[in-house]
């Protein structure tokens, strides 16, 4: 609500926001919709071969790849990656390889029930 | 009411939907052949139309008539079957199990490797591993008829017969003879019974 409307309709001050405001998302990851347990194989990155072309970031349907600008390397999100392996298919440098999930101790998403 | 032997089958959505359903069907049909009272069904609560999602199929076997009305899931499974071994990382698979249960896993790994990922393994008395993917090729199988109407392929033609053959080691309610009579993949059922790796805990 803009200031003008707030005064006109007597809307409380804490709801006052400039017109067309951009608000940062309060939640970036929905912990109630974890999809990591759909995965049978995970993409493993070879950081030496990676050229930071960001193709994996572009093609990932769940936004599980992002660039760590300080370290200058791609970071993978284990909780939400469904193991579709589109990133492995699209990587032009061939630095991603699919590896079976039971090879790793981490990445455990143990839900009580499927949601 | 007599004790009802409850089996919960975990499979991957879409890709193993048909195999999981065939698994529950041949288990129930073979127990039915032995003169027991059975129920087998898969519900839609797990939304199985998403590729790779863990979903459940159920079997109940009893010596007397089963009177568990309006309960569409096995609250206290005696046996849990995993059609895919990576489900142990994603789910609390032994949910609701009482002490003395059986775990059957389709895996090329050993039972000890699987048990590393089971935090509540004190509930188990037996773990059975069988390598069904290598025992039977998936080539030539179709995914038609996965909606449960008319089965396009014969029931139990794929890896389900192999895993069901391994599951015979875990319970007295299933027998290999009636399983071989029911399943379409008869050699697979025998092979699963012979090649199963059984570990008593």
Report on the structure:
The complex is a heterodimer of chains A (115) and B (201). With 115 residues, chain A is an alpha+beta fold. Chain A has a domain at 38-104: Alpha-Beta Plaits (2-Layer Sandwich), CATH 3.30.70. Chain A has 3 helices and 4 strands; from the N terminus they run H-E-H-E-E-H-E. Chain A is elongated, with a radius of gyration of 20 Å. Chain A starts with a helix and ends in a 15-residue tail after the last strand. The model of chain A has no long low-confidence stretch (mean pLDDT 85). Chain B has 201 residues and is an alpha/beta fold. Chain B is 28% helix and 21% strand. Chain B is built from 7 helices and 7 strands; from the N terminus they run E-H-E-E-E-H-E-H-E-H-H-H-H-E. A 7-stranded mixed β-sheet of chain B has the order 2-3-1-4-5-6-7. In chain B, helix 1 crosses helix 5, helix 1 (17-33) packs across helix 6 and helix 5 packs across helix 7. Chain B starts with a strand and ends with a strand.
The assigned CATH architecture of chain B is: 3-Layer(aba) Sandwich
Strand content of chain A: 15-25%
Total number of helices of chain B: 7
CATH hierarchy, class of the domain at 38-104 in chain A: Alpha Beta
Numbering strands along the chain, what is their spatial order in the largest sheet of chain A? Answer: 1-4
Number of helical elements of chain A? 3
CATH-defined fold name of chain B: Pyruvate-ferredoxin Oxidoreductase, domain 3
Radius of gyration of chain B: 15 Å
Write down how many β-strands of chain B occur, each being a DSSP E stretch of 2 or more residues.
Answer: 7
CATH top level assignment of chain B: Alpha Beta
